[in-house]
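User:
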Amino acid sequence: MGRAPQTGLALVSRDVFNRLAKYQPLHECWIDFTLWAACQAGEQDIHQRALQGQLLARYPSGTKQLFLAVFRELQAVIAANPRQNSMLQIMIALGLDDRDTYMGAEVSAENTLLERMQAQAGPGVSVQALDHLTVKDTDCAVNNGSSMIALANIVSRVFPQNPQEKILFALPVASDGFSQFMAFTQLSLMGFSAYTVPGQFAIWDINGDATFAPRNAICSPGFFSDYWNDARLEAILSANGIE
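Assistant: Predicted structure:
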């Protein structure tokens, strides 16, 4: 009988990061992996591949295969149960954190979603009315991105047919420098439209909803879906007075 995805993720992660900790401090290994994983989960281009190469240059040959082993386990866990912060589970397995913040985040996420919707569409709106909402996180480090993942799961529950068309996530750099990559990786693997940037950036929006990513952003494949490409075209036309 095969092992459960959650068990596999913990076992493989401990093995891989114990090996890499011989070359860099464990916490630095983790930070490097979060950025590498975000690039891997994103719509890769030459810039993301170059960034991955720079990260791997800090480690011996074969590290790419080690990172890929963890990433594949991560994919399996998220596919089996997206209602968790899967990268935070790795941190807990490695002893880098001791708090699972996801369930608490999901409890408050629906209220947060309503507040964001009311700010954009006015009071009295319900979650069922959600459409074309962009969420700009303030600091993923508060709970390692659990709030953003919880929002995505609520949208998936309310709109099982097309959740990825309902919400876009803009993830500025977190105060710890890496939690935005944790959130981005899971959101991207869940199929959502999201972007983040390895460094400080200003969210550029010409229509108040941040559908446009900065030039050096890491973007999820979902960011380039027909739906969101059409939304950006509509924003450009509207900004130029063309209906």
